[in-house]
Each structure stands twice: as structure tokens, then as C-alpha cells.
Amino acid sequence: MNTDPTQQTATGWWTEAAIYQIYPRSFADSNGDGIGDLPGITARLDHLVELGVDAVWLSPFYPSPQADAGYDVADYRDVDPLFGTLADADKLIAEARSRGLRVIVDLVPNHTSSAHRWFQEALAAAPGSAQRSRYIFRDGLGPAGEQPPNDWQSVFGGPAWTRTVDPDGQPGQWYLHLFDTGQPDLNWDNPEVHEEFLGVLRFWLDRGVDGFRVDVAHGLIKQANLPDWQEPQEILSGNEIDKPRPPMWDQEGVHEVYRQWRQVLDSYPGERVLVAEAWVEPAERLARYVRPDEMHQAFNFEYLLAAWTAPAQYAVITRSLEATDSVGAPTTWVLSNHDVVRHASRLGLAIGGGRPNGIGIGDPQPDAALGLRRARAATLLMLALPGSAYLFQGEELGLPEHTTMPDEARQDPTWARSGHTQRGRDGCRVPIPWEADAPSYGFGPTDASWLPQPPSWAEYALDRQRDVPGSTYELYSAALRLRRAHGLGRGTLEWLSSGDETLVFRNGDLTVLTNFGDAPVPLPPNAEVLATSAPLNDDTIPTDVTVWLR
Ligand code: GLC
Ligand code: CA
Asked: For residue 279, which atom of ligand 1 is closest to its CA?
């Protein structure tokens, strides 16, 4: 295969797609039990067509004890009764396809659920057995093995090791879990694990999915001998080029896994894609996941994390484009997902302040109006960039984080595992509002909602925004339509100016200007305004506004 990046630049639907993340628990509930489900999604697909996205990515719906909201998978080839049946999944895929929407499913290869048959077999088997070698079991340290095998911490807080109990009731070996205790890490040095996941890929490809979002793609391979790592645990590999790489993230061996997967995907008709969830910095390291014979895309978290200032945005956009260009891959852009504070709230916090892992009662509260204003400007800027854009359900409504959720309602394991210091991710996962005056704002037929919806959410409901000029929903759908009509996703970015206060670039026949500064800037003469993230003032562009001009 030709892997010389200078000789090929990727083409295909995914290189310019707008991809909408559905978090099944919180999208639409068909049976009123308070948890979103697959039939609920199918019934709401027309919303996505009307909005104008190209594809959906579904967070996990597989059988699971739900220790981490489904990212603890007990069976990779079925659907949890909570969400429906395999027949419901087939129907969803077929109905999406008939509307021209592609479907990407979530694949969780770093760990299984502790309820997975393999892990149950491992617990029942002896140390050193074939069953145990599918996971990372080790003897403890100390005279009686009472201390964990190394000092690694879990991403959710607390130690990354849990001690098992042998069948005779005696304390046994320890197993590694980079996340919750209910998420034992698989041993990717074991060929059987590779075989199993090749089968899982084929299972879903045969059912017609267009690709996979690969969970914790940078975590599968651990450094041999599992050396201690004195640093606090973060999912972000956080390595400057010249600093040592954490022994659990971004190890060289992961790339061989994805080269093999790519061959499987390429053996199927159509363009099936792999998307890496890899919290890897800097951009040059991340680009290695999207070399021509590996994955197609990787989420651009450096972009998501960038501060809302002209220099920071200029730097991250430029750097992202350069890094992916160097391997012939398209760039991706993302502002929100199910793991971070929604950008309509995040951008309402002080610039340069800390980035909280969840916000609750008693925490500094974001400025909601400022956050929404900046979020709309940020989205309009993002949707003008060449490459593929990821949207998270509800952001098209300008939905904020639930920042005053009672702590008793929280379900993210982060809250308990961090000793109630990190509130975690529940605030962005609240079921979304469809109809202002319906029970659970139209999320389902009853008032039930697995996380409480804030009383203020009626105003964000879809039916309060549709056909309402200037609403966030109308901004998104207009921008997505224009983005398609002007081929922005497959365009090229040319900077026209990059000061401390404003950014201006051209993409095709469009000029895009964002004003980050305190003072309004004049609209260029003879410019036709195709879209604006907030009303203009006479002929000036106010603070925190993006405009698309021709
Ligand atoms: C990914 C998911 C997150 C999950 C974690 C463990 O980061 O996006 O929701 O908790 O992996 O599977
Ligand atoms: Ca339901």
C-alpha cells in the first residue's frame, strides 16, 4: 500500500461530514421508563435530516451493567434490553440509511465489563490460566500481596487495581482497570483478544454500520512490566515531545491493531470508517493514528480544549491542519461530547480559568448568556473549517450544562471514585428537550428522566426554536445547509488576518470573521452576510460574533 502522505489526500464522505453524536440514554425514550432507547432514536431520525447532518455516532447500547453508562460492555454482539433488541438496531440502521444518514457505532476495546463472560471465567480460573491472560491480572506487592502491583491511578479517581477473591474465599490476585472497577482492562498482548475484536468488527459491519468510534483508542497497549508512574492520572497523554510518555497511553503497539482493523474495513464495500477517541497531544502524535493505513479520523480534543481567544484559536486551527495534512488525512473539529462540560456553559466560564470536570451547586456558575453567545460564535467558526465536524446532541438547541444538579442524582462513577471532589459528566448527559409543554419536555411519554432536567429547559425545546428566526436551532440548520452548498468541508483554509482581537479566513467563496475583541469591528464594504451568530449592530460586528460573508 502507498503510505507516502505526499502522494495521497483522503477523499470520501467522511472527510467533510457533519457527524451528530447520539447519547442513547438521553436522546428519546419510546416506552416512558426514563431512559432513551433505540426505537426512540428511530422515531426522531427526521430531526437529524432536517438539521442537515450526514451521519450519526451512537454511544454504546450493548448489554451492560451500566457501571459507566454502557462503556462497560458485557456482550459486544447484542443490545441491552434497556435500549431495545438487535432487531431494533437493524431497524435503526435501515431507517437511517433510507434517509441518507450514515451510522457509526461505538466500540470499546480497552476494557470489557466485569460482567463479561470472559471476566467471569477469569475470576473462576487459576492465576496464570488462559482465562486470566485475557486481562491484566498480577500478584500484589508486599508480604501477603496486599498492595497493588503498581501505583497507577484510575481515570475516575482511586487506584487502578482491584484485588480479587479466590474461589476458596482467600484474597487473590489484582486486576487492572484504568477506569471503573467494573471495567477490567483487556490484555492486548494476547492474540485471542485480537481475534475476538476482528469478529466484533465483522458482526457490525455485516449489519450495515458505516464505521466505529473507537473508545480510549490510545490505551490498549501498556508499557511492558507496567512501571510505576508517579504522576496523577489523566486520560490525556499530555506528553510534550521531550517528556516521557505515560506507560498506559499512546504506546507504539496500538498502531498495529488499527492497521489490522483497517484491512478488515477496507474489505467491505462502501467507505467504512474508524474514528479514534485518543486523548493524545501534541497534534503531531495524534496524526499518527490517521496515517493512510490506520484510522480515518481522530477527535481533535486540542481544539475542544483551546481557550476562546483569537491567538489560541488561530494556533490550534493552524496546528491541527498542518498535523493532519502531513499524513494526508482530513482534520476533525469538536466542541462538545458526553465527557466534557457543554460548550454553551464552558465558554461562559472565565477565559484561562480551570476547566472543571463537571459543575454543581456551590461551584462558580458560568455566565449563561455569555456562554451561549460565545458557543454560537464558536460553532459558526467551526462549521466553516475544512474537514469533518462532530456535534453532540442538544448543542443545536444551545443547551447548557445542568450546573445545579443535586449531587444525590449523580450517576457518573467519577463522583464517588474521586471522593466527591470531581462532579463528573452527568451535567452534559441530561435527556434533551423536544417539546416545551410535554412531560419530560417530550424526551419520553412520561415525566421519567434518568437524570433530572432543569426547569429552565422549556425555553430550549426544539418546538420553541423551529422556524424562529435567530434561534440557535435555526443557526445550526442554516449553517449546515450553507456548509454543504459551499463545499466548506472539502475546502481549503486561507488566513486573511490573525490579530489579537479578530480572525479572518477564506474558505472557497466564503470569508469568515470572528470578533473576539471588546470593540465592535466594521463589516467589510460590499460584504453580503450569509450567516451571523448574533445580530449585527448597524454595519459593525459586535464582540463574540462570527459572520460568514461573501
Ligand atoms: C471514553 C468514553 C467515556 C468512558 C471512558 C471509559 O473516554 O468517552 O465516556 O467513560 O472512555 O470507557
Ligand atoms: Ca426507554
From this structure: 7
